[in-house]
Specification:
This protein is of the alpha/beta class and 323 residues long. It contains 13 helices and 15 strands. The relative contact order is 0.15. The structure holds nicotinamide-adenine-dinucleotide (NAD).
Length: 323
Amino acid sequence: MNVGIIGAGRMGVVHVNALKKIDWVKIVAVCDLLVERAVALAKELSAKAYTDYQEMLDREKIEAVWICTPADVHPENVLACIERGVPFFLEKPVAVKKEDGEVVVRKIEKEGIYHAVGYIFRYSPVVAKLKELLQEEQIIFPAGEYFWTIPLVDSIKSKEKAGGQIVDQATHMIDLMRYTVGEITTVYTGRSRGFFPEESLYTGDDASGTVFEFASGISGSLVCTYALFPEIVRYYPPKLRVICKRKLIEWSGNEIRVITPDKETKFELKSDLVFLEDQAFLDGLRKQDRSLVKSSYQDALKTLKVCLAANQSMETGEKVIIG
Ligand SMILES: NC(=O)c1ccc[n+]([C@@H]2O[C@H](COP(=O)([O-])OP(=O)(O)OC[C@H]3O[C@@H](n4cnc5c(N)ncnc54)[C@H](O)[C@@H]3O)[C@@H](O)[C@H]2O)c1
């Protein structure tokens, strides 16, 4: 299968490395606005380099494309794929503005194009176990945490361009809550900001606290920060603690801990998540089986709406009902 890459930055390279492990896939073209990035990656793969993704899609016989550009570029990339009938794997989030996502989703529903969105936790075997465990429980309160540093790549430092921490990063946690706990109906978020005036390009919130209401009637929370340092993930990776009736279930990375009055049970399942999500997308495409894809654009847009509601709540100081 001949595939192409749009965006040869961090995630572009991560997906290329996963795709190299699948012997029936050939990366035939790479596009990046930065010519040196496109050329360097294309050279390594013996592929063609482009700086214009429309030209790449027009000239090459591409059977699937990976969209790894900054989020504000995603809608135009996706529309170009739909116009040409090219199946696409899209990195999260689907867009930065709800209106852009809604235009795209209508086109997808009309054309029925095969695609996937990169909500990577959904492909984790340990998350599958978490989902299974939670189905047996009375969930009382899920509490997520995402601790990180000021974004390392320039394209994500600007909240105006990339959406800020909740839209760009903690979107994974919100999606995980939707996937394992259920739909979110309202959002209230408070934030702290302005502690890093020395950081050029950075316009994000330094920390935020969100309270959700779920359709099932329970509440939940999310604490996020960019105020720490890259090493924090070694000590404190993203976590979801789910308070259940007389039981605490904690997910983090490859591990789940289940704590009851008499014991602690651990489940550990290591996996290469990027490989699993790329393989699922490709297998689904080859077999024409959409059930292998765990995150569609329609569903991912619901996650974006929750994230944007958090941003709106920060601005207005009011609880936002998800429309
Ligand atoms: N799933 C994950 O865990 C994860 C982790 C990090 C980033 N991401 C997502 O991946 C996407 C890319 O993030 P990144 O960290 O790789 O960013 P990045 O800045 O490292 O790479 C983006 C690349 O896209 C290129 N680009 C921008 N506009 C373009 C255009 N119109 N045509 C072609 N190329 C263009 C840039 O020059 C850059 O090289 C974002 O949506 C981000 O949220 C996902």
